[in-house]
Amino acid sequence: xxxxxxxxxxxxxxxxxxxxxxxxxxxxxxxxxxxxxxxxxxxxxxxxxxxxxxxxxxxxxxxxxxxxxxxxxxxxxxxxxxxxxxxxxxxxxxxxxxxxxxxxxxxxxxxxxxxxxxxxxxxxxxxxxxxxxxxxxxxxxxxxxxxxxxxxxxxxxxxxxxxxxxxxxxxxxxxxxxxxxxxxxxxxxxxxxxxxxxxxxxxxxxxxxxxxxxxxxxxxxxxxxxxxxxxxxxxxxxxxxxxxxxxxxxxxxxxxxxxxxxxxxxxxxxxxxxxxxxxxxxxxxxxxxxxxxxxxxxxxxxxxxxxxxxxxxxxxxxxxxxxxxxxxxxxxxxxxxxxxxxxxxxxxxxxxxxxxxxxxxxxxxxxxxxxxxxxxxxxxxxxxxxxxxxxxxxxxxxxxxxxxxxxxxxxxxxxxxxxxxxxxxxxxxxxxxxxxxxxxxxxxxxxxxxxxxxxxxxxxxxxxxxxxxxxxxxxx
Length: 476
Description:
The chain is an all-alpha fold.
């Protein structure tokens, strides 16, 4: 028979489980569609792990569903917190949710099967935009609440970090348990179970745990002035020193370029953009304490940081302009160019404007990202026009295309030209599909839906040259 102490302990454990279940249920009631999207993403990922990647497996039809579910998590989260912050009545909140479902379905309906590289780029841009939207959605149309905005994002940042830590620990613990059962008890688990387990934890557990810690009364955060010491230490002694180190490395590279008088490497844009975003994050994390007497250095560092960005922005601009002039625009180059313009705008704003608002960073970046995802000015459309134009011009110059028509008569052109044509066609196949150039051929039927760049080149009477190939020595 249990002692009174044991009965009390069991009652507490049972009460804790009930409280946990009640909190999970409350989170589901608050964010039902976001959690259902997370469950849907986990289900699709679970299926994809067991599917062979071939044309008959059905995987191509699942990827659009997966992409829509992933976008739905942050999309419906943002709609919910926006409605709570505006005190929308229940019917209006329901109507907005239904409209959101329609929008997400329309996005899914526009995706081809299989998805191509351009669709993946657009998906990643939309995902980034929706994550940024989640950072300021409750503060749309509510100026003058900068502290509340910071406290809200601090809560999300901390909750996300804790959720990620718990998810990793839970995953490692469970896979060790599976390995123990496999080796000690002789249970033969399929290797795919480890990937499936990760997707269920990453999408369902991680999302649900994160949503359970989001405050419901966003307006009350404006009057909260708590600042975690650990966050200040992390920003002051980890992030900011790292930014300074990388700034020193990049400036050393600038000096090297000037001394040796050489063109900058095309990939230099990535570390510059990474350092810039990390530096902004560090400044945002210490933003509430910048006016305290013991932290006056933050204001000085902020001015130094944004002034230090201008030479690096010029470096990126020159590097990306050189690559575009030589090889045209691709999605990656387009995004680097757009990010460079955005960095320039942010640096000018925080350098020369006296009264600044930190919300300009996620808001402006969200708008830029959305504009880059759609329309004739978007990355996919601009890149497609650029590369198709380059290809057409090269074909005309080398007399591969005559009077707007390409045939399969064997042709002899320079190695570099043949290689560049092959590279462009490979890009078009990966990103946009070769159907874009089917009507260029004298016999379009020779370029079927499953055609590859090799077939497209052969039907031009040329030889496909791999992008890593070098011109052969001697006679050929």
